[in-house]
Amino acid sequence: MAIRGGAVNRGPAAAVDNRRAILVAARRVMAERGYRVPLSTIVREAGVSQGVLYRHFPTRLDLALAVFEDNFTELAAAAADPGPGAFAQLWDRLVELTVESSAFVEMALDAREDLPGYRGNLRLLELVGATLPRAQESGSVDAGLTPDDVLLAWRMVFGVVVTTTDPSEVAPAVERVRALLPLP
């Protein structure tokens, strides 16, 4: 009697690899297809079962929060520059992330509604508030601009991203929005 080789259930030993595979797949799939992509698509891409997904991430929002925590880490790194250019770096990366993955913004909106303690918007506001004054002091940004104005501009960029029907028109439309605003 021959013994067949094949997949072996590694159980708890596979947990770290499974979680990593889910996060990688979710980041890519959500960036391509949006926040509301069927979770079964992410499961297939990650090569895990639906049960494994739910064991690590009980809800779509839990998954998205884990996926997009990297975005906040990148934004915080841009804001950490002590010079006046930190605001421009932060703004540029925020716009890039929004264009690359509108799912990031969709997740923030859901989190704001579903998680009373969610601080995503406050985190962004704090990053902008920490960098904007230095840019204003250097003269690179209008002195009258407020952190709330910057987040309004960011929501405008998001609006362009999610309402533009032809993907090839997104980048030019975002650049037109940026040209209208007194931001770097």
From TrEMBL:
Keyword match Transcription regulation: yes
An example Gene Ontology molecular-function term: transcription cis-regulatory region binding
PROSITE patterns the UniProt entry points to: HTH_TETR_2 (PS50977)
DNA-binding region (UniProt annotation): 38-57
InterPro entries: Homeodomain-like_sf, HTH-type_TetR-like_transc_reg, HTH_TetR
Keyword match Phosphoprotein: no
SUPFAM superfamilies, sorted: Homeodomain-like
Gene3D superfamilies reported for this sequence: Tetracycline Repressor, domain 2
Keywords in alphabetical order: DNA-binding, Transcription, Transcription regulation
HTH tetR-type domain location: 16-75
Protein's name in the database: TetR family transcriptional regulator
Native species: Modestobacter roseus
